[in-house]
Amino acid sequence: LQTSYESAQLFVTFYRLFSCETISSLKEKALKLGWTENDFLSFLTFVACFYGNSGNYKSFGDSKIVPDIEKEKLRALLKVSAAAQNYSNFLKHYDMIEERVFSLNEKTVTIGLPDKGVSGFFSSNVNKEDTDIIADYFKKKRLEEWNTRLLKNIKDGETVYTIRLASIDHELSNEKFSGATILIERCDYGPILLHTVHWLKKALPFVANENQEKMISMFIKHFESGDINEHKEGSRYWIKDIEPVVEFYIGFIENYRDPVGTRASFEGFVAVVNKSTSKKFQKLVKKAEDILTRLPWEKEYEKDVFLKPDFTALDVISFASDIIPQGINIPNYDAIRQDEGFKNVTLSNVMAAIPAQKINFLTEEDEALFVKHYKDSFEVQVGLHELLGHGSGKLFQRNVDGTFNFDKNVKDMITGQKVTSWYEPGETWSSKFGDLSNPYEECRADGVGYYLSTYPDILKIFGFEGEMAEIIKYVNWMLELRSGLLALEFYSAETKKWRQAHCYGRFVLLNVCIEAGKGLVTIDEVKGDDGEPDLLFKLDKTKIDSVGKPAIGQFLRKLQAYKSTGDYGNGSKFFMNIGNVSNRALKWRDIVIKRRQPRKIFVQSNTLLDDNGFVSLKCYPASFEGVIQSFVDRYSSEEIEALEKVWLRDFPLFNH
């Protein structure tokens, strides 16, 4: 629903298709209809990719996923399927989305505001001017947009904006603003949230402590009312729930897929603690206050008090989201993170699920080091990125009563003069920096990981000393900077836009190190073993400390200065100038795209509860069939009907 208007019904179609009969039965029917073996494999690939991205647009890159099968062939298979016999509206509802599933016109190839792309956060007639008006409304009302969608209507020549809040409750209020009528409507996703609340209430008798009980109770209230303050209150109890054996969080959390960068996708996860790996992270937390003093900005730009968070390594049991991350720093509410605390988690079994494949653009020696030490070095990077990257830095704010949370005499780290900008009441990092907030912040957190991984005592916390510590440091810098080269796949040369926040940030850091010069990073255009154009990436390990660290340090200092003071004008120019994609980089991009490898899909297990109350874990093969069966087993027909009910209501508004 939040991805594209066709995604929800495609989800319903696939659930009914694969729950009514086996994959082998469908394959037999397809072959009788004239499909080839490759046709059917292509179809399964599309379905698995659709499930893995929670929609028909890539969660990592925002470009459209289209079936590599003729439209007529797919329709013929659906027509003879058991689902078509069991559900009277099966084909009728598929008809309503078929054209959009296969469409590759200019407005449907990527996520974006409706006048230029596709989004489930806005009705099909919303444009940038509309989102600016609503952003101003939220700022003046000191509200936040996390769990909202925006609809626009023209009634008797007047613009009517409807701000829908995700909730079970139905309520409507209205007021005038900026020459338009603003309707606040509580009821979005209501039939779906009824099921969410049902299962949360089922979980309440099994909580381990009072914090968990209060947390889940507040989340229930939030989903019932749509009040974001109730989710914030639940998040406060969540950060107080230290070192639980079973970890859980749910809500409208990450705003990567909103073209404006303020509305969040729904997600929820359940995981169990990996105790051995967690010990390393807890040691890092204990030393965090000392480590923070090494970051390359003035102490006034750091939080007044470092609120030691819970930091654990988790093995995911279930993660409902458009992407399964490898590490998380949440909650995302600025005020809570800065003044009350947060949690860091790394997802160990996600990090470990790396397929065996060639590592492009490296020497044989570097490739061998990469394969051998990837997990260990990435564990270091994720730990530093989440705890001391996202967990560091202060936002300068004017309070509602006119006071400030910083000394007005503090010097601007860029100009050397007094600070002249800050966040006003109602402004947040996301609202101030908009769609640049995510790449900017991911870049800052990654840069902190680069910078701090050069300290031997920090690497010792993770169990690496002497020669091994040097290897881990080198592999970390190598894999991260190489990822900045691979990131070019997610840059659109036609629109000159980045389609993925982390990738934009990684490319910026690559440019910082290239511009540092002195042979720190070199990228040569060569011929591959196949005779086709290739690239050779090299990092001079002897210059990481002498050239790389100072360059990253100076860069981070400026990033933090602009972020702390809320200086979007200068901060955006600085960031975008370094992130400029040159003609040389465009040549690299062509080679990167030609040699790209498929992105992995994580196959999730399911927990099953029998009549006696015993829980078992059902695992699935690492295959397209495994992904599909995992999703079919996860949902009930009643939950699918709730999804379809919401989709049918929304169809006229979101049918671009």
UniProtKB/TrEMBL annotation:
E.C. number(s) listed in UniProt: 3.4.14.4
GO molecular function: aminopeptidase activity; dipeptidyl-peptidase activity; metal ion binding; metalloexopeptidase activity
One cellular-component annotation, GO: cytoplasm
Superkingdom of this protein's organism: Eukaryota
PANTHER family: DIPEPTIDYL PEPTIDASE 3, DIPEPTIDYL PEPTIDASE III-RELATED
Reactions this protein catalyses: Release of an N-terminal dipeptide from a peptide comprising four or more residues, with broad specificity. Also acts on dipeptidyl 2-naphthylamides
Protein name: Dipeptidyl peptidase 3
Cofactor binding note: Binds 1 zinc ion per subunit.
Record-level GO BP terms: proteolysis
Keywords (A to Z) from UniProt: Aminopeptidase, Cytoplasm, Hydrolase, Metal-binding, Metalloprotease, Protease, Zinc
